Amino acid sequence: MSKLEVYINQLQLSDLDALMEIESTAYGPHHWSRDSFVAELDNKVARYYAVKNTDAELIAYIGVWHIVDEAHITTIAVHEKYRRHHIAEALIAKMLEDCYNNYIKYITLEVRASNMPAIKLYEKYGFKSLGVRKGYYQDNGEDALIMWTENIFHDSFKDLYKKNIEEIENYLIIK
Predict the structure, then answer these.
(1) pLDDT for 96-144, tens place per residue?
(2) The one catalytic residue among 23, 110, 125, 161
């Protein structure tokens, strides 16, 4: 199997048309609006990254807020054609690199309690479920798991991060 070559850069306003297609497929009718993403790109605490293929097509994105020494993943989605190709892992690794560079110690997120593929991915990256937001999702009242990492500067977390980066490199060439 040949490695997929991808590019990870900051998300731009010019990426929003393609992003909205991925967003609506990934999250259905209750997805974020274009205006929400425009506001997020102007948000001083937000960082958004885009993954593009060699044809410069947007295939995935992640959004993260940096607040003091914590990061909160606000959104992540991968184009359905590129799922199961370790793209989400590459985004999480990029987000972790950014957190290390900005001395962010802890990362949190909410995830649908029924979204087992996402939960397993987050657990692979050291997230643990530490609570529940009852009825969090407006479309169906589903609960959200609140997941956190330990301090990412602890050796055990760094070892996990390094192991996962090495695995990603088996599948992707990241530029």
Answers:
(1) 999 999 999 999 999 999 999 999 999 999 999 999 999 888 777 888 9
(2) 110
End-to-end C-alpha distance for the chain, whole angstroms: 19
152 alpha carbon, distance to own chain's centre: 16
Q: How many domains does the chain have?
A: 1
What length is written for the chain? 175
User: Domain containing 150: what range?
Assistant: 4-174
* Catalytic residue status for 150: no
Residues in contact with 161: Cβ distance below 8 Å, sequence separation at least 6, in sequence order: 93, 96, 125, 126, 152
Note if 110 is an active site residue. yes
Residues 65-105: tens digit of each pLDDT? 999 999 999 999 999 999 999 999 999 999 999 999 999 99
Question: Which is the catalytic residue, given 82, 122, 125, 161?
Answer: 122
CATH of the domain at 152: 3.40.630.30
Neighbouring CB atoms inside 10 A of 77's CB total 23
